[in-house]
Write a structure and sequence with these properties.
Blueprint: H1 16-25, E1 37-42, E2 48-52, E3 68-71, E4 82-83, H2 90-102, H3 109-113, E5 121-148, E6 155-177, H4 184-190, E7 200-201, H5 204-207, E8 211-213, H6 219-242, E9 246-275, E10 278-285, E11 291-293, H7 299-323
Parallel strand pairs: 4-9, 5-8
Antiparallel strand pairs: 1-2, 1-3, 2-8, 4-7, 5-6, 5-9, 9-10, 10-11
Bound molecules: zinc ion.
Length: 324
């Protein structure tokens, strides 16, 4: 963490030149991949994949599209500082994918037989992590309920009084995804990645033989998203300290300092398949094995098992009503 360039910050606002300065202070060693790489961009989903020179791809790992073109390697790309290595092996992942798939009851039967797992690819996904310290002063009106009268005339009233305090908190490895290849809903479903405990320093050996996605949410954008996340968290931490039965007029004055960032890679197993004209992704966390996926619904099954019985029940009910 000490090696990360600082991200100066004032009053919770990220100023353009602060970030630019942080980027300039990134040493040459903090750029590039530390080994010869090739980048391709998918013309369909826009994801950029990074390969070692001896690897080849004929399809996009994220959507299966064959329309991929070379992407000019940008000198500005920040090297990952840390990697969470793969822990779940491919065979193990295939097995749990098969189980996951057969438990998806409304999927068309045809798909269960399809060689879904044949396209399974190991992909390192880019994330940004941020650290920061926050010192916040807060004030609010705290409301405590009390009751007047008795029996039926009992009325609830609220006694308001001003309260205030301060809060100190350290944010450690707050994650912001840098990927555009994996659909956002799926990604949040396979989180968390244990980046607080199990990260290894980046070395080219970790990514050799794997596909790596090049981040497309850049540092500036990620820092802004992280700021919004932290602001929301600080606000709810302050709110939790107000106490009472209810509260109003919460004011928070937050000061952020010691802000640092890291670019990290996390492991995933990704399968894509098309059904009809649509592309579906199934993804597994390459460290915890957690699976999330999209799948088509079989309207035949849904009709016979859900819609038809409902119609019959409705018909019976209507019939009963008619008899009364
Ligand atoms: Zn694609």
């Amino acid at each position: 963490m000490a090696s990360a360039p600082p991200l100066p910050n004032e009053q919770g606002e990220i100023r353009e030149h602060d970030l630019a300065q942080a980027l300039r202070t990134a040493q040459p060693a903090q750029r590039g991949w530390g080994t010869e790489k090739r980048e391709i961009q998918c013309q369909s989903c826009r994801a950029i994949s990074v390969f070692a020179d001896n690897q080849a791809a004929d399809k996009c790992a994220f959507c299966g599209s064959p329309s991929i073109i070379p992407h000019a390697i940008s000198q500005d790309a920040i090297t990952p500082q840390s990697v969470l290595p793969f822990k779940v092996a491919q065979a193990q992942c295939r097995e749990s994918l098969r189980r996951w798939y057969s438990s998806r009851w409304f999927a068309p039967s045809k798909l269960k037989r399809a060689a879904l797992t044949d396209t399974l690819k190991g992909v390192y996904l880019p994330y940004w992590t941020f650290d920061a310290r926050v010192d916040a002063d807060w004030s609010a009106d705290r409301g405590d309920h009390y009751y007047e009268g008795s029996g039926d005339k009992r009325v609830q009233k609220t006694r308001w009084r001003p309260v205030s305090g301060s809060l100190e908190h350290h944010f450690d490895d707050e994650l912001i995804p840098g990927t555009v290849g994996v659909h956002a809903k799926l990604l949040s479903a396979i989180e968390p990645f244990p980046t607080r405990s199990d990260l290894q320093p980046y070395a080219a050996e970790f990514v050799r033989g794997w596909t790596v996605e090049r981040y497309q949410v850049d540092l500036r954008r990620a820092a802004t998203l992280n700021q919004q996340d932290m602001d929301a968290q600080v606000r709810s931490m302050c709110s939790a300290r107000v106490g009472g039965d209810t509260q109003r007029n919460l004011q928070v004055d937050a000061n952020y300092s010691q802000r640092t960032f890291k670019h990290v890679l996390v492991p995933s197993w990704l399968a894509t398949y098309t059904y009809g004209s649509k592309v579906y992704q199934v993804i597994a966390n390459g460290y915890t094995g957690k699976i999330a996926g999209e799948r088509p619904y079989s309207w035949v099954k849904i009709f016979f098992y859900i819609i038809l019985p409902s119609l019959i029940a409705l018909g019976l009910w209507a019939g009963l009503q008619g008899q009364q």
